[in-house]
Design goal:
This protein is α/β, with parallel strands linked by helices and 558 residues long. The chain has 16 helices and 30 strands. The radius of gyration is 29 Å and the shape is globular.
Length: 558
C-alpha cells in the first residue's frame, strides 16, 4: 500500500469502531512497530441479507503483520474480541488479556481447528508489560462485563490512555470498582492523548450503579410471588447474572440457566474465581421440575435473537422450558438500536401466551455500562489529556464528545473515522493520511467484502427476483428448441408461469439478429439473451430481475 508512515511519530489508526458502535479494532504505531487493541464483530448490517456477523477488514495491518507486536484485549465483549476466531489466522500474532477475557476467548477458540496455535498471554489485573517500544499497563474499570480495562500505553513520545468500554460504578456487585487513583496518577504523569468511549455521550448525568439494579430486582421478584419468573439479560453481564441469582435466593427461588452462552460465560467466570458461591445452578431441564413459585430461569435472548432460549420459549418450540399464563418474563437489558422489531415480536408472543412482560421502561432494572456526560467530564478531570480522540460511536457521538471535550478545556480534539491515520505526536495532533479500511461479512464459512458481487446480486434478487434461462444451440448457432425459462421468485399463482412463454420469442428474435461470428461466441450470445429479456420483463412485470443464462451447444447428427 502506497502510504507514507513516518517512523518517529506516534500514530493512531482505527480500522473499526470509529463511525459505528461495534466491531472495534484500533492500531497504535511507532518506529514501524504496531500494537493492536481489540478485534471485535458487529451483528448484521442493512444491505447484507443472509449475514449475521460483520467485522473490520484487517488488510492494512495484515500487510504489516511482521511488524505487529501483539493484540491486547480490553475485555470480553463480542464487539471487542469476537473477530479473533475469524481474523487471527490472517495475522497470527500473540494475544494479551486479563484472566476472564483470556478464558472466554479460549472457549470460543476451542471450536476452531487452530486453537492450540494461538499464543494467549494472561496478564493479571493492573499488570504491566512491554511490547517493543510500547509499555502497556492495564487499568481496572467497571462495565457490563467482568474485568473491563483501560490501557495506559507509554510510548517514546508520550502517554496514551485508551479507555475501552467503561463507567464509574461505586458498587459493581462483582469485581473491583474503577481504579480512580490510578487514573489520577496517570493524569499527574501527563497524558498526551485520551482515546475514549463515546457511546452514551448524549446521556446527561452519571450512569447508574449495578448495586441499585440488584436491589430493584429483589423488590420486583417479591412483587410476583406466583408462577415462574424468567429473566433475560446479556450472558456476558456476569454482575447482572449474580444480581439475579442473589435476588432470586432472597425470594426463595432457585435458579436455572437456559441458553448455551449463559453456561459458557458462567463456566469461564468460575474458572478464574468468580461465581464460586453459587454451586447449585440448575439446568433448564431440572428447573422445570421445581414448583413454579420456587424457581427462576435466567435466559439468553434479550435482543430477540431467533435461536436464543427466550425466543424458542416464546414460540413454544424450546425442548425443555415452557411458560404458562401467570408466569412473568423480565427483560433486564437495554434494546440495542436495530433490534426493536425482533424484541417486540418476542414480547408480543409471550403476552399472547398470557405471560406478563416487564422491561426496563417499566421498572429500574437495567443500567448502562457506558459513561454519561458527567462521567466523561470526571474522566477528563482525572486524566487531564492534551488530546481527545473520541471512538466507539457513530459520527454524531464522536462529534458530540469532541465538543464536550472542548467545553472542558481539552486543548485538542481529533475526530477519527475508520481508516484515518492520526499523528498524535510530536506536534499538534491531526490526520496525515487514510489507510485501507472496510467491512468483512461472514457469509456461511467465508469472509466477503461488503461490496462483493454476491451481496449486490442477493439484494437484487430480494427486490426484483431472478430468472433462469437455458438456451441450446447446435454447431451452426441455431436454436435446437425453445428456450427454457423459469422464475421461481416472481410467480405465485398456479398457471401464472405460462406467461414466461411470451418471452421465448424475444430471445429467438434477438439471437437471429447475430451474425455468423457473434452467434459462435458464448459471451456474445449470453449478453444478447439478457438484452432480449430486460425491456419486455420490465414493461410487463414491473421488475428488473437478475437474469442467469445457461448456454449449451450440441452437435446434431445428420
Amino acid at each position: 500500500m502506497d502510504l507514507y508512515l513516518p517512523k518517529d511519530e506516534v500514530l493512531f489508526v482505527p480500522l473499526g469502531g470509529s463511525g459505528e458502535i461495534g466491531m472495534n479494532l484500533n492500531l497504535y504505531g511507532y518506529d514501524d512497530q504496531w500494537l493492536m487493541v481489540d478485534m471485535g464483530v458487529s451483528f448484521g448490517e442493512e444491505g447484507l441479507p443472509g449475514v449475521d456477523v460483520v467485522m473490520p477488514d484487517p488488510t492494512f495491518i495484515e500487510e504489516r503483520k511482521d511488524k505487529l507486536l501483539g493484540l491486547v484485549l480490553t475485555h470480553a465483549h463480542e464487539d471487542h474480541l469476537g473477530a479473533v476466531p475469524y481474523l487471527w489466522p490472517r495475522l497470527k500474532c500473540p494475544i494479551y488479556a486479563t484472566p476472564f477475557a483470556a478464558e472466554f476467548l479460549k472457549a470460543k477458540l476451542s471450536e476452531t481447528d487452530f486453537a492450540d496455535q494461538v499464543p494467549i498471554h494472561v496478564i493479571e489485573l493492573g499488570g504491566r508489560f512491554q511490547l517493543g517500544c510500547f509499555d502497556i499497563e492495564f487499568v481496572t474499570m467497571t462495565h457490563s462485563i467482568l474485568e473491563p480495562n483501560a490501557l495506559a500505553i507509554r510510548t517514546p513520545k508520550g502517554l496514551i490512555v485508551h479507555t475501552g468500554d467503561w463507567k464509574f460504578d461505586p458498587d459493581p456487585q462483582i469485581g473491583e470498582a474503577s481504579d480512580v487513583k490510578k487514573l489520577e496518577a496517570l493524569g499527574d504523569e501527563g497524558v498526551m492523548a485520551l482515546v475514549c468511549d463515546s457511546t452514551n455521550v448524549f446521556s446527561e448525568g452519571k450512569t447508574g450503579s449495578e448495586g441499585d439494579v440488584a436491589k430493584n430486582l429483589s423488590k420486583l421478584f417479591a412483587e410476583h410471588p406466583q408462577g415462574r419468573i424468567a429473566v433475560a439479560c446479556f450472558a456476558t453481564n456476569v454482575a447482572r447474572v449474580q444480581s439475579v441469582i442473589e435476588a432470586a435466593h432472597e425470594n426463595g427461588r432457585c435458579v436455572g440457566l437456559a441458553g448455551r452462552s449463559l453456561n459458557r460465560v458462567t463456566e469461564a467466570a468460575r474458572e478464574v474465581g468468580y461465581l464460586k458461591g453459587y454451586p447449585n445452578l440448575l439446568t433448564d431441564e431440572d428447573a422445570m421440575e421445581v414448583p413454579k413459585d420456587q424457581v427462576l430461569l435466567l435466559c439468553t435472548g434479550s435482543q430477540g435473537e431467533p435461536r436464543a432460549a427466550l425466543s424458542r420459549i416464546a414460540k413454544g418450540d424450546h425442548p425443555t422450558v415452557q411458560l404458562d399464563p401467570g408466569d412473568t418474563v423480565v427483560f433486564s437489558a437495554r434494546e440495542i438500536p436495530g433490534n426493536e422489531k425482533s424484541i417486540g415480536y418476542i414480547q408480543n408472543l409471550l403476552i399472547r401466551r398470557g405471560v406478563k412482560v416487564i422491561t426496563a421502561r417499566d421498572e429500574p432494572i437495567h443500567v448502562s455500562g457506558h459513561p454519561g456526560r458527567e462521567d466523561l467530564t470526571r474522566m477528563y478531570q482525572l486524566t487531564r489529556p492534551k488530546i481527545l480522540v473520541p471512538v466507539h460511536g457513530e459520527t454524531r457521538h464522536l462529534c458530540e464528545q469532541a465538543a464536550l471535550g472542548a467545553e472542558c478545556q481539552i486543548p485538542e480534539q481529533v475526530i477519527p473515522h475508520d481508516g484515518t491515520v492520526i499523528r498524535l505526536a510530536p506536534g499538534d495532533a491531526h490526520v496525515i493520511g487514510v489507510a485501507e479500511a472496510g467491512v468483512l461479512a461472514l457469509d456461511g464459512g467465508r469472509l466477503l467484502k461488503r461490496d462483493a458481487d454476491t451481496f449486490r446480486n442477493r439484494n437484487r434478487i430480494v427486490w426484483n427476483g431472478v430468472m433462469f434461462v437455458t438456451v441450446v444451440l447446435n454447431q451452426f448457432g441455431e436454436m435446437v428448441n425453445e428456450p427454457m425459462i423459469t422464475a421461481p421468485s416472481l410467480f405465485d399463482e398456479p398457471g401464472e408461469e405460462t406467461r414466461l412463454d411470451q418471452f421465448a420469442a424475444e430471445i429467438g428474435n434477438r439471437i437471429d439478429q447475430l451474425n455468423d461470428e457473434e452467434v459462435m461466441d458464448d459471451a456474445t450470445v449470453i449478453l444478447a439473451v439478457r438484452q432480449a429479456l430486460r425491456r419486455p420483463v420490465r414493461q410487463r412485470m414491473g421488475k428488473r430481475p437478475l437474469i442467469e443464462v445457461h448456454l449449451a451447444r450440441v452437435k446434431e447428427q445428420g
